[in-house]
């Protein structure tokens, strides 16, 4: 079901042709508004990469330079969650294993464990913190447990060549550290999230466990801001919509990958914007573009 206003938006759209500068731009009629929003950012100098596919058929609904590798901030934490999930139940790993936080794990910015007094949590709770709040401290604790090399090996096994978690989370990056927490291309990341949704990332149990952790995500400030869901409570279907997603944010960087299901269809989507963040207006324009893409996705599934 859609409103009369939504129907007018649909009827009023024409097919937007790619510009010569960005031959990687391609969109169906249903996604012309989001396409236009991203095109405006690109013309202003932003680096744009995006992709959306129909979850059932795999049909590409929207693509903008989706093969380009860009920084993705916290998106790479999904690769860590996949490795952790795959190890549960094998090799002596249990969701009830108690993980201690140590001084080298301490880091600021996103997350809530840094504000809690408890020095230790069960492994599954630590993973839930990563899914729900992109918790940096919890990320470092999990990485210390499984090892970055194991995450890289798992990434290779999944066939991802342009997507990687490069390092632990750091408050400051020195010349000897990886310049980014993670990088990725939207074609690979959208494929990965679609595989998780279908239970095909490693195996069904691993996939669905990761999807459950990501469904806790409270950050619905980008693409998902258009879906009308409660940021603090959207694990269950709401108005026939279900969502799991992961976001990444840095100075001049917005990134989101997710899976949205509705009564008419399901989509896997991903958007990364690298833009000049000199003014508040620049940031607001970038977030508005992501919101516009979200409206297009909502129309398609609902």
UniProtKB/TrEMBL annotation:
InterPro entries referenced in this protein's UniProt entry, alphabetically: Beta-lactam/transpept-like (IPR012338), Beta-lactam_cat (IPR045155), Beta-lactam_class-A (IPR000871)
Residues spanning the signal sequence: none
Pfam families: Beta-lactamase2
Keyword annotations of the record: Hydrolase
The Beta-lactamase class A catalytic domain, residue ranges: 52-269
Listed SUPFAM superfamilies: beta-lactamase/transpeptidase-like
Any one GO MF annotation of this record: beta-lactamase activity
Biological process, per Gene Ontology: beta-lactam antibiotic catabolic process; response to antibiotic
Annotated spans, Disordered: 1-23
Protein name as it appears in the record: Serine hydrolase
Organism: Amnibacterium flavum
